[in-house]
Amino acid sequence: MSVLRQPEVLGRTTRRRVVGVTAALSAAAVETVAVGCWFGLVVGSRTTTTALAGLGVLFCGSLLRTTIFGVTVSDLGARLQPQQLGVTVSLTAGWIVWLLVAELIGESLGVAVAAVVFAGMLTGQFVLERHTFRQPTDRWSFALAVPGLLLAAGASILLATVWFTDWVISSSPYSLGSTTIVLRIGAIHLGVFAFGLFAFLAHQRRFQRLLDP
Fold first, then answer.
1. Tens digits of per-residue pLDDT, 68-101?
2. Which residues contact 25 (CB under 8 A, 6 or more apart)?
3. How many CB atoms lie within 10 A of CB 7?
């Protein structure tokens, strides 16, 4: 009997893993786009308009990422809940605090301190997110903090590429009719890519722990 049931069990396990990887990719893509746009708006010449626009983009991205988490692990994610807005606000506030701490201290020390603070805030936000969607919450452990550390590391790399590097790689000009195309890759592009990679690893670990039996 156990032999006959094994293919079904393996099928469910495979489906859960596919769902987890898909959800992690979706959450990482949303977060990368939202954080990248927000970062691009506020890291340069910051005005009231760019600050508000960046805040709006960051909030919408946080709301969508929270919705992806809820839809994946709970039926409650299919409709907007007041508690879900609280989770979204906490995530948005975490990003703002991270950047403020880094800017107030400055230099490499600011990046390091902000990363530690942000990792702690993200871990708390993950716990709140699980509680909101009625998922079992692990006891405080290093394993629970790993996704927060990964996201904070990705954010630190993104910030460091803007603060401490200033290079651009340009391709040779390509003529397309009357238009000349030049491809440029700057340090910030690699920073965004690195952040997206760390974000995927963080979310994949979160979904794996919740979806795997």
1. 888 888 765 455 667 778 889 999 999 999 999 9
2. 200
3. 9
